[in-house]
# Entry
Amino acid sequence: MTHPDVPIGGEDCSTIRKMVGSSPKFSFPVKDHLQLGKELDLFDFDAAAEMHLTYAASQVSGSKFYYLKNEAVLLEMALVNWTLSEVMKRGFTPLTTPELVRSSVVEKCGFQPRANNTQIYSIADSDQCLIGTAEIPVGGLHMDSILSDSLLPLKYVAFSHCFRTEAGAAGTATRGLYRVHQFSKVEMFIFCRPEESEHYHQELITIEEDLFSSLGLHFKTLDMASEDLGAPAYQKFDVEAWMPGLERFGEISSASNCTDYQSRRLGIRYRPASEAQATSAKKSKGNLAPPQFVHTLNATACAVPRMIICLLENYQQEDGSVLIPEPLRPFMGGLSVIARKSL
# Structure
């Protein structure tokens, strides 16, 4: 089931909803985030990197793992804390979540925990999996319950680490921080009445667009085509930001309306208030309206590695330094620029 407005076809059939900003103009050769990260001593992927780390990520954990260092660590913390503070202003309750969940919950949320091409890491000899997104544990937060109508909508903003196998992901387009096995993410999630889910879908994409505009990014919002929708999604909007070093737009966020796909599997219902009020003086079970399934929505407020790519590449300076966008500076102790380390 898809929204009537969803374009039919593959990813190329997706339509542009909005284009924001313009790509920065540089008067010097543009570097990608890997080169900037190496020169500014911000992260390390490879044992061969001349960074003088005792251990490199590829030795300790394998490929597509990384160490963040120095200002990159502060930048991650700043992105997380700034994003949380901004989303909380819009009435979202902050959460941190379990990062191990039962495989049955993963499946009920619409992910395949143990399929051939799964993106989920499963724990051997157990029924647990590492989460690929906080959407999964937040979706399970109210599993097998009937919510009071007065509680809706329930809006959460969750911080977690995410783990993905990224099976089949290879090539220059996915190198560096763009596609990794472990990363930090701030995720928005809403439980609401069925008739309100399209309204909250618009609210979620507006929040994302406001956040990315505040950071001065050039991006486009897409209404994704039917073949690009995951099993739970009725409609999905993606945000792709311009990454100068990669010379392309890269996905940094998405917002999905899953209607009752997840709530039916997770057993999350509510009892409509208008009918729940008994007309007779004596309230009984027979007076109560039958419970209905809520609708669920999720949206990425900040996927940290891809935001770091955007900030490093868009705010690079001719002298090799990188400016910090104004909104993040208070969350980095007032630091306004990442400069080369003196020898």
User: Anything to note?
Assistant: The chain has one domain: 11-32+71-112+119-274+290-332. The chain is about 25% helix and 25% strand.
